[in-house]
Amino acid sequence: MIYLNSGATSANGPATKNRVFQVQASGSVVANGNITAFGSTFMNVSDERLKRDVHTISESIDRVLELRPTEFVWKDNNKQDVGFIAQEVEELLPEVVETSKGFIDTDGEQENEIKDMKTISYPKLIPYLVDTIQVMDKRIKELEKKVK
């Protein structure tokens, strides 16, 4: 396991050691803060040869329409942001929500860590959104035919 701690100091003396980046033995990477990559794309493996039991997603419109887009402020840095609440998404689309261990405490110095942190894979929402758009497009075309 590899991890980096923030070594910043404050007006009140040395800051507490907060983990900011950790590569875990499982292969998971955990970071506290934005990750910036200099490149033109971020790729996900999607090769057909690595998949089995493939089927088309359908009937996602009702679940997508139940998603609650939110605006909120992060507690740790007071930054305003937008997104979904993982626990709410999990009720509708459990396959896009995962439970992360977060930072693994290796030296007994991390207190008050949230265990079993819920995370959303936003790219996994895309197939549901595409299915919803396709259904809406079909409905619009049917309505247009009726109007003519």
Describe it.
By secondary structure, this protein is of the alpha+beta class. Helix content is 24%, strand content 22%. The chain contains three helices and nine strands. The chain has helices at residues 61-66, 86-92, 126-147, and strands at 2-5, 9-10, 13-14, 19-23, 29-31, 70-73, 80-83, 97-100, 117-120. The strands form four sheets. The protein has a three-stranded antiparallel sheet, with no helix packed on it. The protein has a two-stranded antiparallel sheet with strand order 2-3. β2 (9-10) and β3 form a beta hairpin. The protein starts with a strand and ends with a helix. The mean pLDDT is 83.
Encode the helix/strand succession as letters: EEEEEHEEHEEH
pLDDT averaged over residues: 83
The residue fraction in helices comes out at: 10-25%
Low-confidence stretches: none
Q: Which class best fits the helix and strand makeup?
A: alpha+beta
Q: Determine the strand fraction and express it as a percent band.
A: 15-25%
Rg, Å, rounded: 21 Å
End-to-end C-alpha gap: 65 Å
Total helical elements: 3
Q: What oligomerization state is this entry in?
A: single chain
- Count every beta strand, where a strand is a DSSP E run of 2 or more residues: 9
Global geometry:
elongated
* Biggest sheet details: 3 strands, antiparallel
What's the arrangement of strands in the largest beta sheet? 1-4-5
